[in-house]
Structure formats: structure tokens, C-alpha cells
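Repro:
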Amino acid sequence: MEPEILYEDKEVLVINKPAGLIVHGDGKTKPARNATPASTASHTNAGWHNVAGGEKTLVDWVLAKYPKIKEVGEPGRSANGEIIYRPGVVHRLDRETTGAMIIAKTQKSFENLKAQFKDHLIIKKYEAFVYGEIKKDNGSIDRPIGRSAKDFRMWSAQRGARGEMREAITNYKVISRGNGYSLLEVMPKTGRTHQIRVHFKAISYPLVGDSLYAPNRENSLGLKRLALHSKSVTFTDLKGKSHEVVAPYPEDFKEAIKLLSQ
């Protein structure tokens, strides 16, 4: 369950996040200890593998491999006031989501990437399996998202959502259909929490394996987790050069694609 480096330069790191790995603690989960090694081990994985206790996070891996970027970005605080370091974290992927994720290695790079996310200049392409065979070859879901009225963990783009309703737009196109499922390329234009999951739930095509938004639904694709993969990310570096980084499919996605066509 170790991240794979897909692209790296002096300013930016793009990793392929495995399923099951959370990006950083939230002050509720028990953190791992001894995550940061001595500076002499800055480019080994010794610190990552020797982390003791608790749950390992992507941040633990980053700190073990790149201890000098500990204070890059914007640290947060837990409910009890403890600092939560988020070294270089400009965006997040859910625990079960796999694929391409950007990490800034310097503060200048962090600010550059943060501005691109704010202005919707970062191009993110996901692939997802959903329940049901979507008839349209492509489409756009334009529904504001608010808090779910029934579960504090959930968000909603349907009637009854509460709190501030924030603009959310998700574009998609169908890659393939079969056996009661669709494989989609998904391109969110905004970056709301759970946006892809919430939007496809709202149009009655929830994501396969989504235990929160489509609980108790079986699937015949062999997927044991949320069927969402961050396929590629395109960003511009500090010199103005554009980079597209593509993350290979994890094994469970490869198998599900085969099963879809059988």
C-alpha cells in the first residue's frame, strides 16, 4: 500500500495513490508515530516502513521521504487544537480512490497550484464504474451541493439538502457499457467534497462499491471498494510549462474492465 511516483521535479511530485490509504489524519484517527526520519534518510523509505502504531497516511510517507517539505502548504488543526501537518497537499482523494495526486515540494509551487485549482485551470480526469447503463454518450451534471439532512458524513445534490448550497459541475462521457454497468470518464469542473459520488447518486447512477452513497448493493465486477480512479491530472509549472500525468489502472480496475465486456 505504498504510493508510486509518477512524475517528479524540484517543485512538484505526482504520485499514484493506492486504495485504502488516507491522505492525512483528521485528529480522530490514531496517528502513526515516528513518521519523520533523520535527514540522512530523506530519500529512502526506511521512515515509512518503520512508522510505529496507528494508521499510516500519505502524509507519513511524504514526511519520511521528503522531511524538508514538512511546513510547505497550509497546516490545519484538529478538534482539540493540535496542528495537523499537510506537507504539499493541494488537493485530496478519498481513502478508497486510487490514482494521480499532486504534491507541492516548495511553497512557491504550492501557491501556484492552489491558484490553478481555485481558477479551475487544473484538468482532472477520473474513471468510474456506476450502477446502470447510462443512455447518453456524454453529459453534464450541474447541481449545487449541500449537506445531507439525514447523515452528517454525507453531502447531497438533491431536495432536502441543508446549509449553504455550493455550485458543482461534473462532465462525463461513457467509455463502455454492459451487464448493467457503465464505465465513465469523469471531468469535474469544481472540487466539492464527494462531488462525483454525490452527483451520480443524484441522477440515479451511483458509483459501484460506494458504501456511503449506495450501501448494501452487490456488484459482479469483483470490486471491493469505491470504483473511482484518478486517471490523469494536468497542471502548469512555475515556468509556464504544462504537464499531463497519467496513472495506470490498479489491478481491480483492470479485472472489472474485462468483466464489463463479458
